[in-house]
Amino acid sequence: MVIKIKVFYYASVKDIIKKPYDTFELNTDTLESTNSVFKMILSKYSNDEKELNEVFKNCILSLNDEYIDKDKAITLKEGDELSVLPPISAG
Fold first, then answer.
1. pLDDT tens digits, one per residue of 46-72
2. Quick check: 86 and 53 in contact, CB under 8 A?
3. How far is residue 31's CA from residue 33's CA, in Å, rounded to a whole number?
4. Domains in the chain, number
5. Angle at which helices 49-56 and 34-44 cross, to 10°
6. I need a surface site. Which of 27, 57, 78, 91 has the fewest CB within 10 A?
7. What is the per-residue pLDDT for 91?
């Protein structure tokens, strides 16, 4: 079963990737953890791997506007939206 999801990027991640979102096709409806999402993004943007890895250390993810526990498996369905949220800095 192939499902399509959107992954939205914000702040520094969006600046590095140079686009607001991507659509990914997955052959599974379950990802092991948030690290699986980061690996999926890195596979598409390997030229920016070092910079993205640095930012991803402090990012959190949300699935359909709900924060995701970092070590929990993520169950997805067609049309789901993931967001990569870097830390928010006050200033």
1. 999 999 999 999 999 999 999 998 888
2. no
3. 6
4. 1
5. 160
6. 91
7. 57
